[in-house]
């Protein structure tokens, strides 16, 4: 709603414009009337709508046409004053003033007009018979009122109607010629109805109507008043009330009735409570409330937001199959001005056998949007009516801004629930299959049309009994240019094809150029592990490369399975993202590999079998390890024997000492 209102009074000389203003201010008819009243401002606390109001007078004798045009352009509402006892002043309303104002105002932003018949105390008849045809001819005329500056008749009402014409205009809501609400108003009220219909049965129950009433007007309806409202609808519409609930048609009828009876402020109160502006568009302030996000912080949905989204899912999952069919998804997003999720979403989150987004996939997509594009998440929650239904100041209350990642590293613990893993690899290395495998899809279920391809996949993984979201991002294979976004993540997955001899070189070069000196944990993954493994054309084997750079041993992965691919690798990635700086295991048992098992056979067509790493159980981090060479093994064995011998000798010496004391 506007923060102030500017009212301009125009009309022929001697019709009483100045007298009306002075009578309003002094609450009595002035003995002497100046040619023109100075602009006055009525404070907000003494106006019915609690909005400051500026009243501007016009005098043909004291002002030029240019000054008049400037005032017309600044006015929010214009009162055309005529004298009810002066026919010429009435004729000038249509022959001069309305055309003049129309020429000086933008057609797209129509200024409402009020016709004011002054000096009603001088005649016994009304001018309404003459004025009503003019009102019907010009849609910009909001209302007309007869008054008297001398007797103070309808003076306060005049300026109230003028203020109301600005704050609660009829024009955007109603078409008087058609005697029905305009399409934009119907569309807005339809969204409001659907948001308020919490069980999605197409009816507003007494409980839902009371919540709606309390939300918009801060007071519930008494049971009898509620029944009276429904009875009014029943008397006028056959299908306005069904099963004792208000239908969408009945809801529209009620607001049409409010507008026709001059109570359009009721409809405007509802519209503005649900975020609409004077043009019946959702305001930027409603859709994008302020949210401060410091550097190196991320955004996540909080517990209350997930409960709200769960209720929205349950509301639209009519067949209770824990998945949203295309029709159910369309119904859910019917309160949006556009369809927010495209076909690529089905390749980003978990779906059922029919390709429909599951409950888990639904929450995952919301989590992804919140993490990657928080402003869009705020917008979407606004369309769903989060601040209204959850009784919050704004949808920003649904979000948590995590603390700086540097603090997490210092404290060696995190409260975050969403972690980003950037997946790098040469072309054809199996990145897309790796992402789809996270969604439980084996190779047979990965038939994706190119235009529906997604470079993201998100699902949950359990780490030490905690459910966390892992967001995989496939980065295009271009090692020469990587943006800050490509390098900024919680964990890096370096993927190579074990059956392609040139695949690993890409990962090695990428690691040395961008991640060798960074604090971002990295994990090397040998994809397509169901195929014969060949020697990589690089100076070091993948295993030796990991040993040299103190990385965990390469992990094997394949999505060419009968069932869903193994999720172990995704759990390891999530764990490394959560605990990037856990200390390495310097002692024996990180994983044991003999040289003969890790060396590559020198053959024309070599096939190498790399054993899985054996991880020792550790409360610190089971996936962070350091390789121990045979020389180190032998050295460690020597010192172990020496330590054992020293211990035995000390125990023996202590026993002899005690025996000697006893002998004495």
From TrEMBL:
Chain ranges of the EF-hand domain: 304-339
CDD domains reported for this sequence: Miro1 (cd01893), Miro2 (cd01892)
InterPro entries named among the record's database cross-references: EF-hand-dom_pair, EF_Hand_1_Ca_BS, EF_hand_assoc_1, EF_hand_assoc_2, EF_hand_dom, Miro, Miro-EF-hand_domain, MIRO_dom
Name of this protein: Mitochondrial Rho GTPase
Membrane topology annotation: Single-pass type IV membrane protein
Segments crossing the lipid bilayer: 638-660
Pfam families per record: EF_assoc_1, EF_assoc_2, Ras
Its EC number(s): 3.6.5.-
């Amino acid at each position: 709603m506007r923060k102030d209102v500017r009212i301009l009074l125009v009309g022929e000389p001697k019709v009483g414009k100045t007298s009306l203003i002075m009578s309003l201010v002094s609450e009595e008819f002035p003995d002497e009337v100046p040619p023109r009243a100075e602009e006055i401002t009525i404070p907000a606390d003494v106006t019915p709508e609690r909005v400051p109001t500026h009243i501007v007078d016009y005098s043909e004798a004291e002002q030029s046409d240019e000054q008049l045009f400037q005032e017309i352009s600044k006015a929010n509402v214009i009162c055309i004053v005529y004298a009810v006892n002066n026919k010429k002043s009435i004729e000038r309303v249509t022959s001069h003033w309305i055309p003049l104002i129309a020429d000086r105002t933008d057609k797209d932003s129509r200024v409402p007009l009020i016709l004011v018949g002054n000096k009603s105390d001088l005649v016994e008849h009304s001018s309404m018979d003459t004025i009503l045809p003019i009102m019907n001819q010009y849609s910009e005329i909001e209302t007309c009122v007869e008054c008297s500056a001398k007797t103070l008749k309808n003076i306060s009402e005049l300026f109230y109607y003028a203020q109301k014409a600005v704050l609660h205009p009829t024009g955007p809501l109603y078409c008087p010629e058609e005697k029905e609400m305009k399409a934009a108003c119907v569309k807005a009220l339809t969204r409001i109805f659907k948001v308020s219909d919490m069980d999605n049965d197409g009816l507003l129950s007494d409980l839902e109507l009371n919540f709606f009433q309390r939300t918009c007007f801060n007071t519930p309806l008494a049971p009898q008043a509620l029944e009276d409202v429904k009875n009014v609808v029943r008397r006028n519409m056959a299908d306005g009330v069904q099963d004792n609930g208000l239908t969408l048609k009945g809801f529209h009828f009620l607001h049409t009735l409010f507008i026709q009876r001059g109570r359009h402020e009721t409809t405007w109160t509802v519209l503005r409570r649900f975020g609409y502006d004077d043009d019946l568009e959702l305001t930027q302030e409603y859709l994008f409330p302020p949210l401060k996000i410091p550097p190196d912080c991320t955004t996540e949905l909080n517990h209350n937001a997930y409960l709200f989204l769960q209720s929205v899912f349950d509301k639209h999952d009519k067949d209770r199959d824990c998945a949203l069919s295309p029709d159910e998804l369309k119904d859910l997003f019917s309160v949006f001005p556009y369809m927010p999720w495209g076909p690529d979403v089905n390749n980003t989150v978990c779906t059922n056998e029919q390709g429909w987004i599951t409950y888990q996939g639904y929450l995952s997509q919301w989590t992804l949007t919140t993490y990657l594009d928080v402003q869009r998440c705020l917008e979407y929650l606004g369309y769903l009516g989060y601040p209204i239904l959850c009784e919050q100041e704004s949808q920003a209350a649904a979000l948590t801004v995590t603390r700086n990642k540097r603090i997490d590293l210092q404290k060696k613990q995190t409260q975050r629930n969403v972690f980003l893993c950037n997946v790098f690899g040469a072309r054809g290395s199996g990145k897309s299959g790796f992402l789809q495998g996270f969604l439980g899809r084996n190779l047979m279920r990965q038939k994706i049309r190119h235009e529906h391809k997604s470079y993201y996949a998100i699902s949950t993984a359990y780490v030490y009994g905690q459910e966390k979201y892992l967001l995989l991002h496939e980065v295009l294979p271009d090692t020469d240019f990587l943006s800050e976004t490509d390098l900024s993540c919680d964990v890096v997955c370096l993927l190579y094809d074990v059956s392609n001899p040139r695949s690993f070189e890409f990962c090695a070069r990428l690691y040395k150029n961008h991640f060798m000196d960074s604090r971002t944990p990295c994990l090397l993954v040998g994809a397509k592990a169901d195929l014969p493994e060949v020697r990589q054309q690089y100076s070091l084997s993948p295993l030796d490369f990991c040993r040299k750079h103190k990385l965990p041993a390469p992990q094997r992965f394949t999505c060419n399975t009968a069932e869903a691919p193994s999720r172990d690798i995704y759990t390891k990635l999530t764990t490394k993202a959560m605990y990037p700086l856990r200390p390495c295991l310097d002692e024996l048992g990180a994983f044991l590999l003999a040289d003969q098992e890790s060396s590559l056979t020198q053959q024309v067509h070599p096939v190498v079998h790399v054993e899985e790493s054996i991880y020792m159980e550790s409360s610190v981090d089971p996936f962070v390890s350091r390789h121990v060479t045979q020389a180190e093994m032998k050295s460690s064995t020597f010192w172990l024997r020496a330590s054992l011998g020293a211990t035995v000798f000390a125990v023996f010496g202590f026993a002899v000492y005690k025996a000697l004391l006893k002998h004495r």
